[in-house]
Design brief:
about 15% strand, binds phosphoric acid mono(formamide)ester, binds norvaline
């Protein structure tokens, strides 16, 4: 097997070309099929990966750990309570230490600048497991899931992201669809739309790939979408005080059966997860008690319906994260 992305870090989608992104999707599909057929080969035997998490995670951490295990590599998990990073030891010093001990570093945290610093100082490939600005491993999983469910090429596939589009998910969905030549629509209240420079970056990529990019506050733009994506109304690290404003601004953008019908009879629902779709979590219960809302960004009716592909999407986190690591670190089995 060839490894054309050998030694590459994975910091943000825009660092990759159409061909490179498509290669990662193809590799993920291949690794997924090989595993299902019991034919998976190990390309990462004996490698050591540091997993640095400054924020919570269920899917991303599990995916890195299981993907590394499947490929014969070892992981070490560092959480904010059990490492010095950022508190007693600078990111640059931490990077230089980890780079001596590990073959690669995964990082999840508050700032894109931190993952870039780790990349600058560690001397080993660095993988972005989510920052304030981008969620690129999620984008590969979303691309693979849409490819599997659309039944047509991604360049003929459309999707709408509905919600707060200023942060990682809204920004990443905007640029990654543009990179793949898709019909991308971002629907958000004006004050929650992506920054101008990100829209311009997406439009520049769209010029190259033939993608269609729409950013609007009109919910009707969802019409004719093959997929409807959303994200939590309040992201990790945001203060509790933003809830009042967010609920007021985003309630008209909640994904319910009516919105899915507006998208189209065959439209599928997607969500990076976790999702607040009922009262069965602490946050969901608090939202119900405070605002009388049963679920936030998506109704349970949609989340639990046949139109929801969220668990296929979650599974694909593992296959795509495996592809990122194999592409960068893999050696012939
Ligand atoms: N979607 C996602 O990144 O999930 P986790 O926060 O559980 O890793
Ligand atoms: N926007 C969310 C994504 C979680 C996967 C957050 O940053 O918390």
């Amino acid at each position: 097997m060839d490894f054309p992305l050998h030694g590459r870090s994975f910091l943000r989608e825009l660092d990759f070309t159409f061909d490179e992104w498509t290669y990662l999707l193809d590799l993920a599909a291949q690794l997924k099929a090989d595993r299902a057929a019991g034919k998976e080969k190990q390309y990462m035997k004996g490698l050591r990966i540091a997993l640095v998490f400054q924020k919570m995670s269920t899917r991303t951490r599990s995916s890195f750990e299981v993907a590394a295990f499947d490929q014969g590599a070892h992981t070490t998990y560092l959480d904010p309570a059990s490492s010095h990073v950022g508190y007693k030891e600078s990111v640059a010093d931490t990077a230089r230490v980890l780079g001596r001990i590990f073959d690669a570093i995964e990082f999840r945290g508050d700032h894109q600048t931190t993952v870039e610093q780790l990349n600058k100082w560690s001397g080993v490939p660095v993988f972005n497991g989510l920052t304030d600005l981008w969620h690129p491993t999620q984008m590969l999983a979303d691309g693979l899931t849409m490819r599997e469910h659309a039944g047509k090429p991604l360049a003929e596939t459309s999707y709408t992201y509905v919600g707060d589009a200023r942060y990682n998910m809204g920004r990443s969905l905007l640029v990654s669809g543009a990179m793949l030549g898709m019909d991308v629509r971002i629907v958000a209240p004006k004050s929650l739309q992506p920054p101008h420079d990100v829209i311009e970056m997406a439009k520049a990529r769209a010029e190259e790939t033939g993608a269609r990019v729409t950013v609007t506050d009109e919910v009707e733009a969802v019409a004719g979408s093959d997929f409807v994506h959303t994200d939590m109304w309040v992201s990790m690290g945001e203060p509790d005080s933003v809830w009042d404003e967010r609920v007021e601004l985003l309630t008209p953008y909640r994904v319910d059966a009516n919105m899915m019908d507006m998208a189209g009879a065959d439209a599928k629902f997607m969500h990076c997860l976790p999702a607040i779709h009922d009262r069965n979590t602490e946050v969901g219960l608090r939202v119900f008690e405070r605002y009388g809302l049963d679920g936030c960004e998506v109704s349970d009716e949609v989340f639990s319906s046949d139109r929801s592909v969220v668990f296929d999407q979650a599974e694909n986190r593992m296959h795509t994260i495996k592809a990122v690591m194999v592409a960068s670190l893999g050696r012939e089995a």
